[in-house]
Amino acid sequence: MAIVLYAPALALSQTTGLNIWLAVISIGVICTFYSSVGGIKAIIWTDVLQFTFILVGLLPATIQGM
């Protein structure tokens, strides 16, 4: 499960220039806070939004691949 923290932290580190360990800790704190405050409802809505983005991106990729 470390990749769940490391991948977004790596992207954050590359775009902002933050130290990678500071980015990992920041991502962990943000995700924990978001999950604690919003609860399961916030997590479900985030998953729905992410699925929508994936579906919207998959359609043009499928058409381009044909």
From TrEMBL:
Membrane topology: Multi-pass membrane protein
InterPro entries: Na/Glc_symporter_sf (IPR038377), Na/solute_symporter (IPR001734), Sodium:Solute_Symporter_SSF (IPR051163)
Pfam families in alphabetical order: SSF
Transmembrane segments annotated in the record for this chain: 20-37, 44-63
Any GO MF annotation of the entry: symporter activity
Compartments where found: Cell membrane
Protein name: Uncharacterized protein
Organism name: Adineta steineri
Taxonomic lineage: Eukaryota, Metazoa, Spiralia, Gnathifera, Rotifera
